[in-house]
Amino acid sequence: MRATRRVALSMVLLASLAACGGGDVTIPGSTPKTCVDDPTQTKCITTTTPNPDSTLRIVAAKTGRYVGASVDALFGQATYNAVLSKEFSMLVAGNAQKWDAIHPARATFNYARGDAMLAFAQANGMKMRGHTLVWLNSQMPSWLINGGFGADTLAQILKDHITSVVGHYRGTIYAWDVVNESFTGNGAIAASVWSNTLGKGYIETAFRAARAADPAALLFYNDYNLEYNGAKQDSAAALIADFKARGVPIDGIGFQAHFQINADGSGVPDKAALTSVFQRFANLGMKIHLTELDVRIRTTASAAELAAQTKAWSDITGACMAVPACEAIVVWGITDTESWVNATFPGYGSALLFDGSFGKKASYTAVKTAIGG
Ligand code: XIL
Asked: Which atom of ligand 1 is the closest one to the Cα of 98?
């Protein structure tokens, strides 16, 4: 009863405070309490006005983390670049540093676009991730794929590529995706020009060459669907454990984190499940980066699917926040309209944090809130 009355009284007081615009209230016949006597009084509570300029990179920096975005065709456009530098503290080239772009002929390296992105990152206090030194047969130049090279020559080509590219950026790239997507869903080594000719040893060759070319760059193994427990995740863990045991350099694991919300709202592991996956790799001594995050949804999504999508962004971000080794969350594009999802997964879209007019979506707020901003 007494508690109820006290609540009722304070509500009246609060109401009168609100009515007269706040300030000290003295009940007739009583001595006003000081803030030392009762720090819970309205007059003693300092409220922080939310900073309208607070951005993803600002709130992430308070936790010692980076928030990044991949940039591609829209890079250079004024509004795009303004949002990029305002919201993000890390960038990665969506395509510009892949083999076909950067090494189009055996004796030709084309660094211009990656260099422009790096210059932008440096001018705006951002880190740059390098992506990617070795991939399967995707976005590979035909001179390489169709060259018919024997093992010795191919190994030398691989080492030369890494020595040249990593060497060009020596001291400037924060982290390299050294090898991308080496495992199949069953956890086997995926077929590629590399594995077909060099066996699985190409992975080790690549990491050793990268370390030699830039001892300061963090070296990552990067893949998709590692977010789910199973054979593929186990193979990545085994690769890392083997590298650690044998002294092969590796610093981190990249979870591409291309997620899909299914029609029934399922598809993304919850925060606890993701946390334990990230922790598994943290326990192996790895830094964790979410490297290509997007959460696609049906273009005809229901309100329930949209809600599941917002929850997913919150869960994914929250899981990273729960694991100290998780130090970067990189989204694969800034706006929904530039996302690779639209062309790659017909019927799906709305996969990123901003709409096509750079409006902040519910996903943006979910991420920012989960970071703690
Ligand atoms: C995608 C790019 O976003 C597209 O523009 C390109 O056409 C294909 O590649 N995994 C990766 C990324 O590691 O490099 C891919 O990027 C998306 C899947």
From this structure: 14
Contacts of residue 274, defined as CB under 8 A and 6 or more positions apart, other chains included, come to 227, 315, 316, 319
Tell me what percent of the residues of the chain surpass a pLDDT of 70. Answer: 87
Beta carbons of 97 and 130 less than 8 angstroms apart:
yes
* Probe target for ligand 1 pocket from 332, 339, 348, with the most ligand atoms within 8 Å of CB: 332
Separation between Cα atoms, residue 256 and residue 158, nearest integer Å: 23
3-class state of residue 274 by DSSP: helix
Strand partners, 360: 354
Q: Is any atom of ligand 1 closer than 6 Å to the C-beta of 182?
A: no
Give the distance, in angstroms, between the CA of residue 216 and the centroid of all CA atoms in the same chain.
21
State pTM to two decimals: 0.87
Mean pLDDT (whole number) for 201-227:
98
Contact 66, 89 (CB under 8 A): yes
Taking residue 317's Cβ as centre, other Cβ atoms within 10 Å add up to 28
Q: Provide the token pair at 169.
A: 């950026």
pLDDT at 13: 35
- Residue 184's SS3 state is coil
> In the structure, how many helices (H) and strands (E) does the chain have?
14, 10
CA angle, 126 then 128 then 131, to 5°: 160
